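ingest -> validate -> predict -> emit
validate: passed (alphabet ok, no gaps, 145 aa)
predict: started
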Amino acid sequence: MSQHRLRAGVGTFAIVSLLLGATADAAPSGDKKYPWERPPGPIAGLWRVTCADSAGMTVQVTVNGKLANGVIKNVGAARRFGYRSGEQIFKNLKPSYEGRWSGHHKWRDVSGKVRWDPIFFEASATRLHALMTTDNCFHNMPRAK
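emit:
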C-alpha cells in the first residue's frame, strides 16, 4: 500500500511539474514579468505642487528608458526652503508591476536640512499623486499649463 501511495505521489508531482514547466515555456515574450502587470502611468510632463508652503513650484519630469527624474522648473514659494530652479527634486523613479512609480524625493526644511526620502506615485493623464510621501506637496498634482 505504501509503494502505491509513493508511486501516486511521484506521478502527481511529475504531472504538476510538467504543467508548470509548460506554462512557463508558453509565457509570452516581452517586457511583462507577470500577466497581471500594468504599464506605468504617464509621468512625463510639467506638474504643479499642491501645498501652500511651496505655492507656484512646478516640476518637470522626464523619462529616460525605464527611469524618471524630476527637476524644479519654477521654484515659487519653495525658495524659502532653499530650493532652486533647475535643482533635481525626484530621482530614480522606477515603474512597478502595479503601474506605479517609486523612487526618492529631495526634502528640505527651513533650517537647511536635506534628505532623500522614498516616494511612490500614481500617474494619469491629468494628475500625479503621491501615495506615500513625507511631503504633502505632492498629493493630487495637476499638470501645469
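Helices lie at 2-26.
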